[in-house]
Amino acid sequence: xDWLTTAITGCVEKVKKSSVTFIDFPHITENGKYIxxxxxxxxxxxxxxxxxxxxxHSGDPALRAAAEHFTQRILPRAQDSRNHDLGFMFYPSAxxxxxxxxxxxxxxxxxxxxxxxAAQFNPAGGYIPGWGFFGQExxxxxxxxxxLMNLPLLLWAAEQSGEDRLLxxxxxxxxxxxxNHLRADGSVYHRFHFTPDGQPVRGDTWQGLSxxxxxxxxxxxxxxxxAILAGxxxxxxxxxxxxxxxxxxxxxLPADGxxxxxxxxxxxxxxxxxxxxxxxxYGLLRLYRLTGEVMFKDSAVSVLHALSRxxxxxxxxxxxxxxxxxxxxxxxxxxxxxxxxxxxLKALLELKDVTLCG
Length: 358
Known about the structure:
Blueprint: H1 2-21, E1 25-30, E2 33-37, H2 44-58, H3 61-74, H4 86-101, H5 104-119, E3 142-144, H6 151-161, H7 164-180, E4 191-194, E5 200-204, H8 216-233, H9 236-252, H10 274-291, H11 294-310, E6 323-326, E7 331-335, H12 338-357
Antiparallel strand pairs: 1-2, 3-4, 4-5, 6-7
Helix pairs in contact: 1-2, 1-12, 2-3, 2-4, 2-12, 3-4, 4-5, 4-6, 5-6, 6-7, 6-8, 8-9, 8-10, 9-10, 10-11, 10-12, 11-12
GO molecular function: chondroitin hydrolase activity
Keywords: Hydrolase
Protein name: Unsaturated chondroitin disaccharide hydrolase
């Protein structure tokens, strides 16, 4: 697949170029230029992850130096007490960096982040609240589908430390999510509300078209989170649930292979969300490794080929165009995003590895 080699090379070169000029963490673009944050908000780990992935592919010492610098900068966030996205922040950065370099302080930072994430768990309710960066709205009873993607941090930390409570928190949160977020057709609610003692109230959304619609990035978070978790624990229920979500996504992909921002938006001219495509493609490849079902690999190839043909950026900042961060709140519409960039490169490299392994 010549297009795959070309896409990986283009992404790595773009990351290298950006590493020279980016002095803070890229978040989402506005008019083709990244908005940066000093502390990484919830997306900082994705920039660090791009640097580590690019270094792993190229061996360029300048990329390693940049990755080390930004990994150090993200460490203070391990103490966050209201942040359900600590897995997003520390798995691509500190854990990846530790695996490559053996830097013990980064392993300890990731362990601290895992403990901070577990400390947010509501034991009576059985869930980690979806704390976010959403102004003054009360989120203590709201659970986001995104949190599934952060639980691999807890499973890794439990294996590293032997702290069984971390594993228990992950297990109970997944159980709660599968019982309430996952719908009969394989789609998922973006947000679900519970009473403090865990009684279900209603399904909802924050970034999708409606409570009962299928916000495409949320479907991608569900698929990929469940696939990663199932691989970590060899859990058949988690794997079967990932398969259900994957089949929903595959059944709702448009002919061009690039997801709309919400699969149930009837407007055919509605914005795309290329980041949802990249996230879902990575999840499909993880699922292919677990099941051997060629359909999952073929679907991932179709999406990634479409993204490489129609969404790779040249002049503007970022790797992947045509993402939609948050349409209902007017944020990052038809732009690049740190998470879209990260999962695009990660999925491309995963496809390369899958192809080489057969």
